[in-house]
Design brief:
Layout: H1 44-61, E1 68-73, H2 75-87, E2 93-97, H3 100-112, E3 118-122, E4 139-143, E5 145-146, E6 151-152, E7 167-170, E8 187-191, E9 202-207, H4 209-217, E10 231-232, E11 235-236, H5 251-266, H6 270-290, E12 294-296, E13 308-313, H7 316-320, H8 323-340, E14 355-359, H9 366-387
Parallel strand pairs: 2-3, 2-4, 4-7, 7-8
Antiparallel strand pairs: 1-9, 5-6, 8-9, 10-11, 12-13, 13-14
Helix pairs in contact: 1-5, 6-9, 8-9
Length: about 400
């Protein structure tokens, strides 16, 4: 089909999905051997395991001692929903979105909670809204890293320290790979299946003292489902933040998260995790800079994600294709790589522009990223031969 040479080297681990993400290097099912299966999560051993996740998470991320950390149901989505439904309504809200998940939170705020005093700050995929326009006298809802757009806020300098409102941050594809300024964040959420490659269904919810104060002094106008309730009798449900989960957790998933956290500690903690992710971005970006057909969807280097690296197809013929053919061409690249067993699940998110998305989080080895890139060129060459005539 094409004269482009077939690569000789394959990634050792072809898992480049943006969630669930690759397991930590060297992982085998034996890591779960000590799981207390068949035991209650309320038993001493079960609660101890859950507390261990909380304690190790605090240590690795450097979360302040006066911040609460809870394990909650329904992954990052559940954690964000708990925060939105429990905390919003006391003030006006500034909601930021530059990709699919941020738009999802806007939908909840405007169509489900129906908060009238809401300002929407939006940007397209690969870009950020004007952060200088955010009003921190209001509550602010945003994603730290746009998982489906490959764009992240560059730092926390834009967030005021003397804010009156709360900052509610969906950090699911940022935590453990980017430096989060905890003093600037009042609510932070994520899921286990992202940067550390844990198993799904569980979310993490971190609350600052300011967020706890809001919970204790404000009662939403709407009823809260049981799985959203963080208070009882006017007091904080402290058990949630000590391993007493609202619903029944998977102890297998808990054991797996402990294993991932131990691995993070063993390689040097957060500093090393961030360095591994940034190294993966650097390798991909160097390739993109030299490519005649691919580019980073985020054009501003300062906002490029080091985890969800989104690749746009810039080949001239591609721009001339119909939207349907663009989607088909991108999917064909993904299909070729999947069939070869060299890259799984690297298609762009369904709502994003047609292209590719390569996960560069800390559990992905840089050597595997390097091995992947020639395969991208090889697969594109085949797709170009098939689709370029359609653009003539």
């Amino acid at each position: 089909m094409t004269d482009f040479p077939r690569p000789d080297v394959r990634p050792n681990n072809p898992n480049f999905s943006s969630g669930p993400c690759a397991k930590r290097p060297g992982w085998t099912v034996e890591a779960l051997a000590n799981t207390p299966v068949g035991r209650s999560h309320r038993a001493k051993i079960g609660k101890a395991r859950l507390e261990e996740v909380i304690d190790r998470t605090r240590a690795v991320l450097g979360i302040p001692a006066d911040y609460r950390i809870g394990i909650v149901p329904a992954s990052d989505t559940g954690a964000v929903e708990m925060a939105l439904w429990s905390l919003l309504g006391a003030r006006g809200v500034d909601a930021l979105a530059w990709e699919s998940f941020g738009e999802g939170w806007i939908t909840d705020i405007t169509k489900q909670l129906k908060l009238a005093d809401t300002r929407l700050l939006r940007a397209g995929y690969g870009e950020l809204p004007d952060l200088s326009q955010v009003d921190f006298d209001r509550d602010v809802v945003f994603t730290w890293n746009g998982t489906t757009a490959g764009a992240r806020v560059p730092n926390g300098d834009w967030i005021k320290s003397d804010r009156a409102g709360l900052t509610i941050c969906d950090a699911t594809s940022a935590v453990f790979a980017m430096d989060l300024p905890w003093d600037k964040l009042d609510v932070v959420t994520w899921s286990w299946q992202k940067v550390l490659g844990g198993e799904g269904a569980h979310g993490m919810l971190v609350l600052s003292p300011r967020a706890v104060e809001r919970l204790l002094t404000y009662k939403p106008a709407w009823p809260l489902p049981k799985v959203f309730r963080l208070t009882s009798g006017g007091k904080l449900s402290e058990g949630i933040f000590k391993g007493e989960t609202i619903n029944t957790p998977s102890m297998i998933a808990v054991e797996d998260q402990i294993d991932a956290l131990k691995w993070a500690e063993s390689i040097g903690g957060l500093k090393t995790l961030i360095a591994r992710s940034e190294a993966n971005l650097a390798v991909v970006q160097a390739w993109l800079d030299a490519s005649d057909w691919a580019a980073n969807l985020a054009t501003d280097p300062k906002v490029r994600s080091c985890t969800s690296i989104c690749i746009a197809i810039k080949a001239p013929f591609f721009a001339k294709l119909s939207a349907e053919d663009q989607a088909a061409a991108a999917k064909k690249i993904v299909s070729i790589l999947d069939k070869e067993g060299v890259a799984f699940d690297i298609g762009a998110y369904r709502d994003a522009p047609s292209g590719l998305r390569v996960w560069g989080g800390a559990t992905v080895e840089t050597a595997d990223v390097k091995a992947l890139l020639p395969w991208l060129d090889w697969a594109f060459a085949q797709v170009k031969a098939e689709f370029e005539p359609k653009a003539a």
